[in-house]
Amino acid sequence: MQEITNDLLKLAADGDMASFKKLYEASASFVYNVAFRVVGRHEDAQEVTQEVFLTAFHKLKEFRYQSSFKTWVYRVTVNQAINYAKKNVRQNQTMEYDENVNAVEVPSETRQKMDQEAREKLAQELLNQLNPDQRACIVLRNLEGLSYQQMAEALGININTVRTRLKRAREALMALGKEVTQNEV
Q: Tell me, what CATH number does 23's domain have?
């Protein structure tokens, strides 16, 4: 995410639409990526992103400058995404493979891309099986690289709660991974 100055934040908070547009352009892809990792679907991530910027537009006046804008928008995004995921629980879809697909000769570059896409889809399916609070912790720690303290600030929870959720999420992912492995054998 691009650096956002306090001056730009103050102008956007005062209703300057050009400044808010700059704020949006500087942080929209960041917000979308965080939302996508929590909700797991592009359409849902787009909706969450819209909600985040609606919230930002209305609540930016309340921003206290005690933390960075990035931390604040993390918190708003993760909270919006968790709430969205809780409201819109969807059945996880399983991938089905056609046994005849492997009979066709596929160039190695294409096969590598297909394998990578399959791994990413499987990872997202595993994440989708976690509850939204655990999923948010995994996303913030493993995909976004936040420290426990940053996660606690972003989620607005105690650092010990972060550790507990992360531990339970990892245990659940390990159990789910074993199920997938056993089903493939």
A: 1.10.1740.10
Give the domain CATH number at 127.
1.10.10.10
**In which residue are the tokens 């909600």 written?**
51
Task: Identify whether residues 15 and 49 lie together within a single domain.
Answer: yes
pLDDT tens digits, 34-84: 898 888 889 999 999 999 999 998 898 888 888 788 888 888 998 899 888
30: Cβ contacts below 8 Å, ≥ 6 apart: 1, 70, 73
- Whether 1 is in a domain gets the answer no
Q: Quick one: what percent of the chain has pLDDT higher than 70? A: 80
- For residue 167, what are the CA distances in angstroms to 30, 71, 121, 130? 26, 23, 23, 12
- Please check whether residue 34 is in contact with residue 78, taking contact to mean a CB–CB distance below 8 angstroms: yes
Contact by Cβ (8 Å): 60, 13? yes
The amino acid present at 101, given as its one-letter code, is V
* Nearest alpha carbon to residue 78 among 12, 21, 147, 153: 153
Rg (CA), the chain: 19
Q: What's the whole-model pTM score? A: 0.57
CA end-to-end distance (rounded Å), the chain: 42
